[in-house]
Design brief:
The protein is α/β, with parallel strands linked by helices. The chain is about 40% helix and about 20% strand. The protein has a seven-stranded mixed β-sheet with strand order 4-3-2-5-6-9-7, with helices on both faces. The radius of gyration is 21 Å and the shape is elongated. Bound molecules: S-adenosylmethionine (SAM).
């Protein structure tokens, strides 16, 4: 098999010129041109020759070449149809890769895992388009995709949001969702000059290792996430008001007061002060049977 060569900016420029490629801002196209960062992502994703890997947004196939060498099989989903002939060219020597021209938010990833990996957990690796980071991650977690880990490049600020706890302005629904499903670890900080074109923001690689069992016990996961969303919708309001004013919940004032009291929380507490354990306990307090 050919060695990956696209991480070298010289080769990336050659490919872009050969196809007269025009970057599409609306697709969040910032291609990686740093071999050290590519090596770091591959090492952090802990891929072996047994693994089936899903790549989201292969671009011109830079990381795909590395993934192809490390994994048993790679499926790469790319939305931009102008990149498809380029990928056919750059991946022609990498036979274990299949490219799907589609929007990742419309692809049934669980079905791909069933058909191509016998339903066993897949590894997701991506330099994500930043405009849809949150829906992509939430979609993978919530749609019952069998997952081992997700190793992704995201905006630095979003990586911080995934890792943080109460007391930080970055703490929110994304932090709690990620920490319910996975253990987050920031693997590397990546400056703008590692991409072409350069993004305006700093980036970070974060690995989310899926828990076999979530770290807290909750009787109704969907209810907990509705409660979490309601609590952060009105960040500056009390938990009581957040839950009362939510269109997604229909608890009475008395029921909310009782649940808050059962958890030993103050009636004036704000939702943003609660830990994941406390959100789980609060959810369980609403379920009486
Ligand atoms: N992986 C390449 C790299 O590291 O050089 C490209 C990364 S670039 C940040 C994001 C890629 O995701 C682009 O190729 C873009 O066209 C693609 N993309 C954007 N939105 C997408 C979507 N909804 N579904 C699939 N791919 C998407």
């Amino acid at each position: 098999m050919t060695k990956p060569y696209l991480g070298d900016p010289k080769h990336t420029i050659e490919v872009l010129q050969k196809y007269d490629f025009a970057f599409q801002k609306r697709f969040g196209q910032n291609f990686l041109i740093d071999t050290h960062v590519l090596d770091k992502i591959i090492a952090a994703s802990q891929i072996t020759k047994d693994d089936f890997v899903l790549e989201i947004g292969p671009g011109i196939g830079t990381m795909t070449q590395y993934l192809s060498v490390a994994a048993r099989e790679v499926v790469a989903v790319e939305i931009d149809k102008t990149l498809i002939p380029i990928l056919e060219d750059t991946l022609s020597e990498f036979p274990n890769v299949t490219v799907i021209n589609d929007d990742i938010l419309k692809v049934d990833v669980a079905k791909i895992a069933r058909e191509r990996n016998g339903g066993r957990p897949v590894k997701v690796v991506a330099n994500l388009p930043y405009y849809i980071t949150t829906p992509i991650i939430m979609g993978l977690f919530e749609n019952q995709v069998p997952l081992d880990s997700i190793t992704i490049m995201v905006q630095k600020e979003v990586a911080d949001r995934m890792k943080t706890g109460p007391g930080s302005k970055d703490y929110g629904a994304l932090s709690l969702a990620v920490q319910y499903y996975a253990k987050p670890e920031i693997v590397a900080n990546v400056p703008p000059n590692c991409f072409m074109p350069r993004p305006k923001v700093g980036s970070a690689v974060i690995r989310l290792t899926r828990y076999e069992q979530p770290p807290v016990f909750v009787k109704d996961e969907h209810l907990m996430f509705r409660i979490i969303r309601a609590s952060f919708n009105q960040r500056r309001k009390t938990l009581m008001n957040g839950l009362k004013n939510s269109g997604e919940l229909s608890f009475s004032k008395e029921e909310i007061e009782a649940a808050i009291e059962t958890c030993g929380l103050s009636p004036s507490v704000r939702g943003e002060a609660l830990t994941l354990e406390q959100f789980a306990a609060l959810t369980n307090a609403f379920i009486t049977e």
